[in-house]
Give the backbone structure.
Amino acid sequence: MTISAPRFRPELSNQDKRPTRCPACGCDGPEAASPSNEAGFELLTCPDCGLGRTWPSVPGEQIVRWYPEQYYGKENVRFNPLFELMVRWFRKRRAAVLYNRVPRGPVLDVGCGRGMMLSYMREFGYEAHGLELNETAARHARDILKLEVVTGDFLTSPHESNRYNAVLFGHTLEHFANPVAVIARAYELLKPGGILWIAVPNYGSWQARLFGRFWFHADVPRHYFHFTIKSLDAILQRHHFRVVQLDHYNFEQNPYGLLQSIFNAAGFRFNLLYSLLKSSTARTDTALRYPFQTVAQILLLPLLVPFVVIATALETAFQSGGTFEMYAFKE
């Protein structure tokens, strides 16, 4: 699948210093600026490929404060028991999909989180390796699931070159300050013919364009970059990856992203419903603090859910899902 053509050699460093050209397509035209929901930050958008970036970019030594222990929840449990079961089902389903596409052998999950998907892949016979930002993020995967998880910077991690059958980025690539260098590093680690799987929010989707700063998946400033299909494809091509499949629908991400964006745009407390679905140790807001808004959202759910289901089906049909997934081979 070819969407765009290479035009320049991308910079592999200092992308957090606002390079003069778009790191994806090389466009040197002025970026369009739009507000974000987080005070002090804005979103800059490339006029050519549509790549977005959070500006200013939070330095690496400071971004950790945006990932406090509450962000992960006590013992890395983020959601209430019902939604924890759903998350486990989603991770097992994803592992089964990858099992049908990736030959068994070593795989690396970059930003493996609690390690649930990686644990299921181990059950399927893979040699499972993970990487996480810090010890808090890796605690459950390493201590409970007994997975081999490295903590620290992916660009300088000790993983062996040309070793992995697959390198996986499940909604983690957008959390890196320099995704161009990250893709180059993934290329180094993969075997020839190895598979790169990337799932990211779709900055070119109907949801992103309609809701702007209220879009649930923007997650400023934790998301450094905001990818469109065209921008990510351009980066992959330049690093000798061949995109072989593009998926526009994710049942776990797309419907809820639309629902929460509607509530955000309607003036409710930002991401209140998302907070209420979390475990008590991971919540930033509670129903007791916002009782009327909580009741109002509950009453609106029966009306909005059918609309959300239909709308996400339509955006998928028009290849404009709120998230997208790319599978690419190392050539």
In short: Residues 291-317 form the longest helix (27 residues). The first strand starts at residue 32 and ends at 35.
